[in-house]
Amino acid sequence: MEGVMLADAKIRAETGTESGPRGPGCSLRHFACEQNLLSRPDGSASFMQGDTSVLAGVYGPAEVKVSKEIFNKATLEVILRPKIGLPGVAEKSRERLIRNTCEAVVLGALHPRTSITVVLQVVSDAGSLLACCLNAACMALVDAGVPMRALFCGVTCALDSDGTLVLDPTAKQEKEARAVLTFALDSVERKLLMSTTKGLYSDAELQQCLAAAQAASQHVFHFYRESLQRRYSKS
Amino acid sequence: MKETPLSNCERRFLLRAIEEKKRLDGRQTYDYRNIKISFGTDYGCCIVELGKTRVLGQVSCELVSPKLNRATEGILFFNLELSQMAAPAFEPGRQSDLLVKLNRLLERCLRNSKCIDTESLCVVAGEKVWQIRVDLHLLNHDGNIIDAASIAAIVALSHFRRPDVSVQGDEVTLYTHEERDPVPLSIHHMPICVSFAFFQQGTYLLVDPNEREERVMDGLLVIAMNKHREICTIQSSGGIMLLKDQVLRCSKIAGVKVAEITELIQKALENDQKVRKEGGKFGFAESIANQRITAFKMEKAPVDTSDVEEKAEEIIAEAEPPSEVVSKPVLWTPGTAQIGEGIENSWGDLEDSGKEDEDEGGSDDAIMLDSIKMDTGLEVSGIGSQEDAPIVLSDSEEEEIIILEPDKNLKKIRTQTISAKQEKAPTKKPVKKRKKRAVN
């Protein structure tokens, strides 16, 4: 750990002031969202971040299998389907991350002995897939009218080999990055709900990424608000 | 989730309406629902909407060795998935009868009709051929899955471009999209399925049944045809008996419908190609109707991250110094070691069966330590002394009774560890904690 930090300090010293997280990398790609586009699920949303696109459908609160029934709260299930082939370990791990995030905000105690199922379908992956999945899941839950304590959003940060911070990276940027960090943040206190990381980074960099993700989450929540305002406007 | 059953009055109502030549969505008997085709950013990706039925198609390719009896032919593989998103009754990972039937029909329609030139997919005879995989995901089920899936499959195949390869002697070179333009598949013709639903033992006929109509129908006739009016597959299911005239009439209708759909597909493909050539915007984001109130777009948003470094430094400065990290692994028994702080793993809480054994072992261990403490009256502290503590795997009956007793406490222990985790009290050594609880 210390070795990494030292090496990092060295890099920063070498590149001087330019190593800071500035420049064109620190912007979110264009966002698009469409809600209620499927007729069968109770709620659905398609979320796009640049060329990354995820479709989400939510069923619930609905009947639950006896084996999965929880007596004092709703059973939350997340299914993530890849585009090519069958779901594997990577999908299972993502499902778990998304489920844990949803469980933190969904008020399951209001619907005991029911099931809430979130089905996510990857439509195209061009980087920041997990963040896009989280955003799609949130919009679909909102569309389904599932009671939630707060909204949540996902933000992915990537750290270059020279320590530059890139928000909402593309697939190419993710591949070249030294570390990729994904955070889920809630809308009320902007606190961390979930974090998953890959690669090497120092604790200072983690805090930087977190602060940047919090700044980016403002934009995402603003986007949520605007799109819902548009949806529920009278005109 | 189970499917909501159709009530008797609903069924009667639907059948009555069909008798009166009326359909709930206002269509005529031979009308198709609207078809919308949109393409993704990568090649071979499309979404086909047939009314509210929606299918996502994606084609991918891979170099593999060919089948032994077909050394010069590429491999075509179709996989239709009924996602739970499409309807709550579809269970993930289960091969239902419907799914098997649809997959078989799709294979017959597209592979057995030889619409794709499989010989052109051969790279080195007997060694390397292309395997083309077509993945179809049903996103929303509103009836007539097979028509939507067959359209999606053929559209995705026509849209797909595979990487170029060159063979020099024994060497096969694969070119990326940047190096050489990818090549399209050679498609001889486009077979498209058209479904006909029959009611009242074949008295009434409807083209392109929706989900409600499918549930009250007696039989289904699927005809796969290309625009040259060649029948590729014909399948009748549901056990109704049809007259020769009826089948001929259906094939005539299918011919008209297929011509219309083929034209639409070609137009959509041309449009997409034009946009790509001109360097315009393409992909699913462009196919969202902007005027819909359920849709919203936001342009690229710059995020001000100039103060993140200061913020990060502040947080680090305020934070308590991290607790001592145990870098040396603790050896419990030969073959079982532990690193980290010894907080209980919360993974696999649902899969209790595997865990029970572990827990028993753990509690056993704690009791052992406890007894040591009582016997010697010495405070066993630190992990270092832990290593020296003899670990005896109990097999006597006495020990077993002890294992059963703290089973009640066990749950307490688990909840406590979880709460301890939340409070983040890293200063306490996990070994000590365990001992105290065992005493309780």
UniProtKB/TrEMBL annotation, chain A:
The keyword Phosphoprotein applies. CDD domains: RNase_PH_RRP46 (cd11372). InterPro entries: ExoRNase_PH_dom1, ExoRNase_PH_dom2, ExoRNase_PH_dom2_sf, PNPase/RNase_PH_dom_sf, Ribosomal_Su5_D2-typ_SF, RNase_PH. It comes from the Eukaryota. Residues 28-147, 151-215 form the Exoribonuclease phosphorolytic domain. One of its GO terms (biological process) is rRNA processing. Keywords: Cytoplasm, DNA-binding, Exosome, Nucleus, Phosphoprotein, rRNA processing. The keyword DNA-binding applies. One of its GO terms (cellular component) is nucleolus. GO terms for molecular function: DNA binding; RNA binding. It is found in: Cytoplasm; Nucleus, Nucleolus. Homodimer. Component of the RNA exosome core complex (Exo-9), composed of EXOSC1, EXOSC2, EXOSC3, EXOSC4, EXOSC5, EXOSC6, EXOSC7, EXOSC8 and EXOSC9; within the complex interacts with EXOSC3, EXOSC8, and EXOSC9. The catalytically inactive RNA exosome core complex (Exo-9) associates with the catalytic subunit EXOSC10/RRP6. Exo-9 may associate with DIS3 to form the nucleolar exosome complex, or DIS3L to form the cytoplasmic exosome complex. Belongs to the RNase PH family. This is Exosome complex component RRP46.
From TrEMBL, chain B:
It comes from Otolemur garnettii. Keywords: Cytoplasm, Exosome, Nucleus, RNA-binding, rRNA processing. GO terms for cellular component: cytoplasmic exosome (RNase complex); cytosol; nuclear chromosome; nuclear exosome (RNase complex); nucleolus; nucleoplasm. Its main location: cytoplasm. It is found in: Cytoplasm; Nucleus, Nucleolus. Belongs to the RNase PH family. GO terms for molecular function: mRNA 3'-UTR AU-rich region binding. Residues 427-440 have a biased composition (Basic residues). Residues 340-365, 416-440 are annotated as: Disordered. GO terms for biological process: exonucleolytic trimming to generate mature 3'-end of 5.8S rRNA from tricistronic rRNA transcript (SSU-rRNA, 5.8S rRNA, LSU-rRNA); nuclear mRNA surveillance; nuclear polyadenylation-dependent rRNA catabolic process; positive regulation of cell growth; rRNA catabolic process; TRAMP-dependent tRNA surveillance pathway; U1 snRNA 3'-end processing; U4 snRNA 3'-end processing. This is Exosome complex component RRP45. The gene is EXOSC9. Pfam families: RNase_PH (PF01138), RNase_PH_C (PF03725). The lineage of its organism: Eukaryota, Metazoa, Chordata, Craniata, Vertebrata. Component of the RNA exosome core complex (Exo-9), composed of EXOSC1, EXOSC2, EXOSC3, EXOSC4, EXOSC5, EXOSC6, EXOSC7, EXOSC8 and EXOSC9; within the complex interacts with EXOSC3, EXOSC4, EXOSC5 and DIS3. The catalytically inactive RNA exosome core complex (Exo-9) associates with the catalytic subunit EXOSC10/RRP6. Exo-9 may associate with DIS3 to form the nucleolar exosome complex, or DIS3L to form the cytoplasmic exosome complex. Residues 349-363 have a biased composition (Acidic residues). Residues 32-163, 189-254 form the Exoribonuclease phosphorolytic domain. It comes from the Eukaryota.
